[in-house]
Amino acid sequence: MSWNDELDSARDRDQTPLEDQQLFLPDTFPDLPPPLDLPPAGGGAAPVDPWDPGLHPVHEPGPGPDKAAVVQTKAQAQTQTQTQAHQAAATATALAHESPPELVPGSELAGDAAGRPRPALAWGRVLAIVNQKGGVGKTTSTINLGAALAEEGARVLLVDFDPQGALSVGLGFNPNAMELTVYNLLLDSSVTFADVVQKTRVEGMDLIPANIDLAGAEIMLVSEVAREQSLQRALGPVKNDYHYILIDCPPSLGLLTVNALTAADAVVIPLECEYFALRGMALLMNSIQRIQERINPRLQVEGILATMLDGRTIHGREVLSRVTDAFGDKLFKTIIHKTIKFAEAPVAGEPILTYAPNSGGAKEYRDLAREVMSR
Ligand SMILES: Nc1ncnc2c1ncn2[C@@H]1O[C@H](COP(=O)(O)OP(=O)(O)OP(=O)(O)O)[C@@H](O)[C@H]1O
Ligand SMILES: [Mg+2]
Q: Residue 45: which residues within 8 A CB-CB, separation 6 or more?
């Protein structure tokens, strides 16, 4: 069975799902999207050697914001009218048709000590880590893929785009004690990126934190002009200061996820290796395709990441074989196995790469980073 057939049957199972009603797209969209024909994930090239760390400038956060202005602008945002929501839908499709990221001189390195060629790496590649299903490893993958890319010398920004704030907590922050988060960056034009960005304990990796305030953003954004592009606008000025920007999405297909997909060049889809793994995948693929067609033509599927595989069980291996049949070369070669270290590391407030650097899980995310860098 091809992956398209598999998705068709999954689509039948997913008729009228709740998430479908939540998909927050301009009103002009037709009801039925055309059949899936998404670009293949990567060229299947073997992972290449990383390039030297420490070659790029460290980002220095700026001074704090004017708190009075923050409060005032919040109030202004609340008074936006419903009319603007319609304007937003009309203008959404006319905006954000950016050209693909350019290779910036200096990001391409000549070779390693052994003279082997290193990958040319573009600045400003934005990856959304998406799956509307909860608990599949989105946040774990964002933290650890980010840390592994940073370990390879890339400048990395993680964007916590889930009101649960798990990404921020997993990196040792207490987002509920923070006054300025991604919410302010989205909705308050007086708040700058430098006001919100936090350095993490991982060298070369920064974080835009989130807390429960972000839950209110979905409602507030409805009245914003070009509401789908709010995150893209917020990241625009700093996009090319980072090689990779990873956005940890919430478990829904609401406006926050649509914003992430609009800002992204590609999506990484963590897929838990369990019996119902394929449930909801047709809906997710359709959603990605709709964004690609109507808002963000450069959006691609970077790859599907099999997570939490228990390779000791027949069941785990069966599910993996099913996922492989369904997605073929869209599946990353790297598989993330189930290990208790993944539950322990966030409690310690750090990635598994630093918490248990020699563990199997750390090695797997390093392999994934090399795969991503070679694509
Ligand atoms: N490979 C793994 N092995 C074992 N446990 C894992 C693994 N990956 C993630 N976990 C654990 O599974 C739980 C869910 O993971 P995670 O929070 O990354 O999922 P999520 O998709 O971000 O969830 P949500 O949809 O709620 O945001 C966490 O407790 C995490 O520690
Ligand atoms: Mg999460």
A: 374, 375
Q: Whose CA is nearest to atom 5 of ligand 1?
A: 342
pTM, whole model, 2 decimals?
A: 0.75
Is residue 75's pLDDT more than 50? no
Cα of 103 to ligand 2 centre, how many Å? 31
What is d(CA 332, CA 305) in angstroms, rounded to the nearest whole number?
6
Structural domain including 263 reads: 125-374
pLDDT exceeds cutoff 90 at 184: yes
CATH code at 200? 3.40.50.300
Q: At 369, list the tokens.
A: 């980073």
184 assigned to some structural domain: yes
Domain membership flag for residue 71: no
Q: Tell me which ligand sits closest to the C-alpha of residue 141.
A: 1
**Rounded to the nearest whole angstrom, what is the distance from the C-alpha of residue 343 to the centroid of ligand 2?**
13
Q: Is the CB of 44 under 6 A from ligand 1?
A: no
Asked whether residue 308 is assigned to any structural domain, the reply reads yes
Interval 297-335: pLDDT, tens: 999 999 999 999 998 899 888 999 999 999 999 999 999
- Residue 362 lies inside a defined structural domain of this protein: yes
Letter string b/e over residues 295-315, b meaning 16 or more CB atoms within 10 A of that residue's CB = bbeebbbbbbbbbbbeeeeee
User: 199-223, pLDDT tens digit by residue?
Assistant: 999 999 999 999 999 999 988 888 8
Each residue's pLDDT tens digit, 76-121 = 444 443 444 344 334 333 333 334 344 443 444 434 445 444 556 8
Contacts of range 138-141, beta carbons closer than 8 Å, 24 or more positions apart: 138/162, 138/248, 138/249, 138/251, 138/270, 139/166, 139/167, 139/170, 139/248, 139/346, 140/170, 140/270, 140/307, 140/342, 140/346, 141/268, 141/270, 141/305, 141/307, 141/336, 141/365, 141/368
Closest to 372 measured CA to CA, from 243, 240, 275: 243
Pocket test for ligand 1, best of 319, 341, 342 (most atoms within 8 A of CB): 342
